[in-house]
Amino acid sequence: MLNKAAKPLVKLVDRYLPDPYIFVLLLTLVVLIAAVVSENKTPLEVINYWGDGFWTLLSFSMQMLLVLVAGFMLASSPPIKKLLDAIAGLAKSAPQAIILVTLVSLAASWINWGFGLVVGALFAKALARKVKVDYRLLVASAYSGFVVWHGGLAGSIPLTIATAGHFAESQIGIIPTSETIFASFNLLLVVVLFVVMPLVNRFMLPDEKDSVYVDSSVLDDKGGETVSSVLEVNRAGESPSKHKPAMRPADILENSRLLGWSVGGAGLVYLGYYFWVQGGSLNLNVVNFLFLFLAIVLHQTPRSLLTSLNEAIKGGAGIVIQFPFYAGIMAVMVQSGLAQSISQGFVAIASAESLPFWSFISAGIVNIFVPSGGGQWAVQAPIMLPAAQALGADVARVAMAVAWGDAWTNLIQPFWALPVLAIAGLKARDIMGFCLMQLMITGVIISIALSWF
């Protein structure tokens, strides 16, 4: 049934969904016009909001680019490739591959969202080398695990309100993670999704005649090695059939295991001190630091790492060009009051019992335009928290409803899919048909959990 239901969605998205760059351009125009029409702002005011906010995500853009690059370099190192291939070998059929990649992605995303994005995509490629399976659904399944990140250990909203000095502390105090991440309703929801999502993805598996397969040779990431060897031959001015050119001092450094291990080891020593002495926790910078220095150690030589880097960087173009546009959209949504208006519209029809549900729905809509958990909380908290207190609703549950709404529509928000798509070598339209089905099913499950669990 799910296979038949997903098929028209896949065809619809494949035909009509543009490239994510086109999507963000259209989204920009929609937000600019909506801010002028509904918020009574002048076109010049709205353009100023947009231009002033355009570069506010530069540091985050670099973080996301490093998620892609460092994760790719780590996975392309010989030991990690062997490990991923060994785990992928557990799957002997297409259904098993879909279930396994979904579970791995769910677990990794619950630990840390950046970790989940990279691990899921890289594991999908490893499985595609082992098993004949629809590659589009395999990558969509890897991305689907991302839906649990805001209910997990790195959820930005529950961690924010559990931290002393957060901007709403005078209003709601400090809410411990025992009432949010580790609350019974949230844990039960996570468990349900760990059971349901693998089954949903497995039963969307297309028939063999409708499946799209990828030759394993395309996934070997060896293009950089070929280019590197050609350049080395041209530089020496010799035919590849002749003896190897003499090693230059630069070659000795580029192939030095001692150099790679020394610097990589220093980074790992710092991480050990950070975690065990300072009691540090995972965040995006730490995940990127870990991936990068593990890659340096496991590649052994600087040349091996740079070869991998040359391949990895090719997939980062979408992040570089699109994230500034999303920063501009977020600025317009916040500064014009458009995001607040959307939230207030749902609050106006809510009761104490239904406020978590409407908070979830409104957060899902706002997330399309403001795809940032922390940024979205800054926009919606001033509306949702007073409403929760006035109606006598559970503040912790309302906060988690906003968190889950943010995570939910990430399934169809190209902003977060870009690193996964870049690693997998696909376009958004290749996976979004399956993601639409995932969106509808998870929307029902999360709504029930927030309202009745």
Report what the structure shows.
With 453 residues, the chain is mostly helical. It has one domain (2-220, 315-452). Helix content is 73%, strand content 0%. The chain contains 23 helices and no strands. α7 (113-130) runs parallel beside α22, α18 runs antiparallel to α19 and α19 packs parallel to α21. The protein is globular. The two termini are 27 Å apart.
- Percentage of residues assigned to helices: over 70%
Radius of gyration: 23 Å
Order of helices and strands: HHHHHHHHHHHHHHHHHHHHHHH
Domain module tally: 1
Count of individual helical segments: 23
Q: Give the mean pLDDT.
A: 83
Identify low-pLDDT runs.
223-242
Decide which structural class fits the backbone.
mainly alpha
Strand percentage, roughly? under 5%
Distance between the termini: 27 Å
Outline:
By secondary structure, the chain is mainly α. 73% of the residues lie in helices and 0% in strands. The protein has one domain (2-220, 315-452).
Keywords:
453 residues, mainly alpha, 23 helices, 73% helix, globular
What is the fold's blueprint, element by element?
Elements: H1 2-16, H2 20-38, H3 43-53, H4 58-75, H5 78-88, H6 94-111, H7 113-130, H8 135-144, H9 156-161, H10 169-172, H11 184-203, H12 223-236, H13 249-254, H14 257-277, H15 284-299, H16 302-312, H17 317-335, H18 338-347, H19 355-369, H20 373-391, H21 395-408, H22 414-424, H23 428-452
Helix pairs in contact: 1-23, 2-3, 2-17, 3-17, 4-7, 4-15, 4-16, 4-17, 4-22, 5-7, 6-7, 6-8, 6-11, 7-8, 7-22, 8-23, 11-23, 12-16, 14-15, 17-22, 18-19, 18-20, 19-20, 19-21, 20-21, 21-23
